Amino acid sequence: METFQPFLNFFAAQKAVxxxxxxxxxxxxxxxxxxxxxxxxxxxKENFEYGMTFLLGPAALLLILGLFFCGGSTPNVAxxxxxxxxxxxxxxxxxxxxxxxxxxxxSLLDGTFYECAASGMKANSLNETEDCLQELVKLPCDxxxxxxxxxxxxxxxxxxxxxxxxGAAIVFSCVKFCSQDNNVQRMYKKHYARELRERFDAFVxxxxxxxxxxxxxxxxxxxxxxxxxxxxxxA
Length: 235
Known about the structure:
The structure is a single chain. The protein has two domains: 5-180, no CATH class; 182-235. 82% of the residues lie in helices and 0% in strands. By secondary structure, it is mostly helical. The protein is elongated, with a radius of gyration of 30 Å. The relative contact order is 0.08. The longest helix has 52 residues, at 183-234.
């Protein structure tokens, strides 16, 4: 067991990084599976709506789930003060944005959703003949007739993906740098949260015990009153 102790200590110290890496792998794999199995561009004027739904819909869902799980896993910030609560809320929101950003980056680098959406957007915005519009919306289904335009769509998607990656890296780095605490502060927050939770649990147990005792006394009193009434009626 002592042989594996350094590895266990390493995984315990880097559990957040390992968790984010696993989340990234699962998100990228899910995006690829989604694009292969579920996505089928209609090749009509609804291309834009269909492509943007697959691009932004799962990202919005991941953001909601991230806010739910990240918010539920953090200690109660109501008793930490306004400044600490705001900082904690900011960190929760940033952590919740990781999965949606990974989804958007993976989707844009792949380009499948963006190609479908871009063909529909161009068809709705260009003042072209009906034949040209029909040819444009059918590009995702027949790439041989417009390979250059499809490559242009994919290049635009990948450029936007790299802009998003760079912007997200800058934002996450700034938040990490601004919220970085030293060992003393982390130890203080850890012990403070544990002490607060223990005292609150003790208070709740004591309060619940007193309320239960009062309720039992009330039930006993009501029972005695009913017994008195029944005896008087039987007499």
